[in-house]
Give the backbone structure.
Amino acid sequence: MQLPPALCARLAAGPGAAEPLPVERDPAAGAAPFHFVARPVRFPREHQFFEDGDVQRHLYLQDVIMQVADVPEKPRVPAFACQVAGCCQVFDALDDYEHHYHTLHGNVCSFCKRAFPSGHLLDAHILEWHDSLFQILSERQDMYQCLVEGCTEKFKTSRDRKDHMVRMHLYPADFRFDKPKKSRSPASAEAPGDSGERSEGEAMEICSEPVAASPAPAGERRICRHRSVSELFLKPVLNMCSVLRILGCTWAAALLILNSER
Amino acid sequence: MWSRRQGRLRPTVCGVEELRRRRREREAALRKARREQQLVSKRLLRDDAPEEAGEGCVAAILGETEVQQFLRQAQQGTEEKEREGALVSLRRGLQHPETQQTFIRLEGSMRTLVGLLTSNQALLQLEAARCLHELSHSEQSTVAEACLPATSYLLTYLSGHSSDFIELCLYTLGNLIVESEAVRRQLLPQGIVPALAACIQSPHVAVLEALGYALSQLLQAEEAPEKIIPPASASSSILASTLPQHMLQMLQPGPKLNPGVAVEFAWCLHYIICSQVSNPLLIGHGALSTLGLLLLDLAGAVQKTEDAGLELLACPVLRCLSNLLTEAAVETVGGQMQLRDERVVAALFILLQFFFQKQPSLLPEGLWLLNNLTANSPSFCTSLLSLDLIEPLLQLLPVSNVVSVMVLTVLCNIAEKGPAYCQRLWPGPLLPALLHTLAFSDTEVVGQSLELLHLLFLYQPEAVQVFLQQSGLQALERHQEEAQLQDRVYALQQTALQG
């Protein structure tokens, strides 16, 4: 198929539309037995017209068996250790370190050191577990936000929220990143194997392994600080409440203060 | 900017003949599947393609005890390397359908795997995800559906940060999506559409390509036109999300355009558009101009690079443009077609030439666009004449009957616009070409030839004489008895004799 040489030049030149020649139709054009009518054609999804192109598309999908390790090979670097305090994991490839960092240190709660897969879940956790004002506000209005991306429903209790996620979003009842907060009894220390966040492939029920028995794989130390709930929460909360009473602040203003303090 | 796609494709050690044979088999299987409306393909990421093994060190099939043992080691082992190694062994075993069956029949196996997937040990997570990925690729529904307990976590991880991991999750989800409507009935309420919409903002090319793949699988679903695409289907709606705008962004030509990513999103767009749900919405987002510019870009690239697989991108782009041009909305912007740039015609012919040489089966799709461009546009018809494209068009006539009919249709589009157009069609190669097509046996080709002749005789009566001199009447006589052609043949004979 020979194209006129000027065509490539036309493509490279600027945009423009041809000045149309005058259109002048004779009614005899469409007179029987002739029936041609100029019209754009549309083809729906399953039309046979698409067969060849579709087959090629699927050959392409099936064809590509991709390497998990990138080509070229993952660049290796001299071994280095993770810089996060308390973590001595060692790496010799940046990709591995990136993944480790994001998994273990990326979205970590500064209060209880739990790691979350995303900022979204971390924010929800901090609000619901460590924000005392949240507890108070939630007695008056629905505060527990659905955890599914894109759903704006809110609920009175975390139980209600879980029911919603199970019924409407078909989430598992033991979804690992939505553990109900435990009671605030000062006596209960939080065991490291708690709530599944750190349990290593165990069943998702809260396991009550004593600290000593939890396996510490070589090269990786957990940050296993235990602080009783009273240390973490009650003192600053009590302080805050008395301050608020003195100031006569509204809850909304109080939230502002709390946020700025974080 | 159009560089050769960096080979993540691994050449196998098989001979060329063997490869060709396999490809022909697969092609035949795909055609059959499409005719039965069951065209399903999955993608597999693997770090050692079995053919590469060569010396036969393919992973062995694992028995029940071994699977249990590996799972236990991965879950409870003390050394991290040991745990990881156990999962790697499991993953290799899972390349076999038998091991997959064994795995899913073992009680608690998926639960354990999901536990490992959601552990805080990065490398264990990755290996567990790879095991899941192998399972998702299975052709057996029971195996793929056994992965369902993991989907909420796969979706959750899409808003994480580790690009390799996200890529793997996306390909796994893509494989599961295409498995069955049952799977999609779980994934949609779980929020797969918002999760994808959030993930599409990733800067990583590999993630975007994986996302495009997963999305194209979702859009290809049979129930997509009713339940997934329309804006009214609330939280699971594609058109109501920000996805369409992002998709179009991925298709804008420029330094950031990545061919692999563009291919996936072009197909996504095609599935949306040919569902004909809400195309004016897409036109409103600038789909026509984006795709038009992309077409120009493709034509430029085709002239420079050989064998870059550009037809994989050209095909969906042509389809999208062609279908969009049938929308009434196209005409309403200022009363004129949004797509008016003459360069589109030039680009299209460059692509037609490319198809002619490399992929003739795509010629009809290119000609389809040409028909839709010229049908109602005097401007584009004039362009074809002024750019001297009639002769190249005629050169396509011998390719096949389907192509012939389409070429003749385009020519009719031009001729029907009146004498000013027909004057430019004659004298020239048109009449000899028509006399040639009249000799075809295919009724549709001949019928279209008769329509064109009629228009030519009407608007350019001088052509009649030449037609007679070149034994036109004999050519017509051949078809006098054909039911579908008789009336027109007779009418033309009368015109010729009276002229």
